[in-house]
Structure formats: C-alpha cells, structure tokens
Fold proline dehydrogenase.
Amino acid sequence: MEAVLRSMFQSIAKNAAANKLAKKYGLRFGAQRFVAGETVASAIECVKMLNAKKIAATLDHLGEFVFTEEEAKHSAGMCLLTLDYIYTTKVESHLSVKLTSLGLDINKELCMNNMRAILERAQQYDNFVRIDMEDFFHCEAAIEIYEELCKKYDNVGLVIQAYLYRTVEDMERLHQIKANLRLVKGAYKESPNVAFPEKMDVDENFKKIIQMQLLNRYYAAIATHDENIINFTKKLVSDHQIQKNMFEFQMLYGIRVDLQNKLVEEGYKVRVYVPYGVDWFGYFMRRLAERPANSWFVLKNLFK
C-alpha cells in the first residue's frame, strides 16, 4: 500500500491541474508543516527561528510549470529578492534554485543569463547558491550548466542524487572541478532503467558517494534524515580525521526537528532547506511520497 501511495503522490506532483487547484485553496491542505509560507517575509521569519537555535538555512522560492520567458524572469526576480532579504535581515541562509524555474525548458541561454544575474547578486552579498537537481531528464543539462558557471563563479554548488545509476561517474567528472556538492537520495519518480528501484541499493550508493566526496576533501552537504547514513558519516569523518568545516548535515523544514537539534548539540553544522512561495504543491507531494504516512495531514486539513 505504501508503494502505491508513493507512486500516486509522485505522479500528482507533476499534474498542472492539481497544482492550480492547490493554489486556489492555499496552504490549507497541510503544507504549512513543510512550507514556510507563501511570501519571502514569512520565510525569513522561519529562518530567524532556526538561526536562534544555531541552525543555518537555505531558502528556496518554489516554482514549477514555468513555460514562458516572463515566468522565468519573474522566478529569477524572486530569487534576487530573496538574496536581498537575506542580506538586509542578516539571517544566516544560502539560496537554492531550480533551473527549470529559471527557464531551462524554454531556452538554455535564458536560464544561464538568469543564473548569472543571481550569482552576481549573491557574490555581491558574499553569499552562496545551490543548484537543485531535478528529474533524470534534466540531469545532464544541470551538470553542464554548473560546469560552465564554475569557470567564473566560486559561490555555486550542485545537488547529486544517489538513486541514479550514473551518479558515481558524475561524481568523478565533478571532482575535476572540486565541486561543492549536496548529496541526497533523490525524490523524483524514475524508471528502473535509470535509477535503483530498491532502497538498499540507494543507501549503499549514498554511502559510496559520501565517501568519495569527503575522502577527496571536497565540501559535502549530506542531506538526509536517515540516522544510519548520519552515523556512517560521523564514523567516516572520525576515522579519517576530516574537519567539521568540510561538511554539514542538511534536512528539510518541518522534518526531524529533534534530530536537527541533537546534531547541533553535538557540534555539527546543520542547515535546513526552507521552501516558500505559491507554487508549493509539487514540493509538498514529493514530501508525502517520501513518507506516505504523512498523508493523513492532507485529509485532516481538507475537512477543516
């Protein structure tokens, strides 16, 4: 049953009609547990609360189903606004971006121009931008764009997903430019032709790429709520005397707050991914797909 629910939520996440309906009803579906409001101001308040607990953040203006140049420019403008807010409020936060929201599916050069504008602003503020990895279809384009941007900018990183078969080769390729990487399991619905279908295999590949990144002494953001993966990382850095300033643990807003606090108490750097915006539906569905048991929040809030 859980597998059926997971597949259903992953499919609904890509449904434009469902996204439109969700916007009509706002966050009443229960998404406020995982999404820090619809405005940058509300998101900044959430970041302030995290910072008060010695937890850093990375803000993400959610955006999917971007089909026009105007929509892509609006999304880029929101990213610039987010960087402005981070700077003026002096919160500790990076910025995360999705290339499709910046026009990747419309025109690659449009996307590149938007990314350059964002990185220039971030550089002005001495801040850092992380390019989120999306589905397999966009993987190669994302890596190519990242490689191109790294020729000029040193304040940009990329996400790599453990569930893809190609990931180890991608890691070897990215090590040529000493890439700053966020390592994740992966949350999109993918074919078994391109991704490991079994969790056990994903976990083993996750451990392998964590080891590859850290033993090469390149910065690693290990994004997981899995305590087995966290404990594996702790032992790895202890055994190889890897300094704590070479990695951080990352988690999602609203998930495993207890574990976030525990890691901070143990002296580890923790960063929480804080999404906001009106286009929250696809993100919310992927969170439910990761843990279908959370779907009761949706039903409960629908009948309020």
Notes: The beta strands are 56-61, 93-98, 129-132, 156-161, 181-184, 220-223, 247-252, 270-276. The radius of gyration is 18 Å. Residues 295-304 have pLDDT under 50 and may be disordered. The domain at 36-254+275-279 is CATH 3.20.20.220 (TIM Barrel).
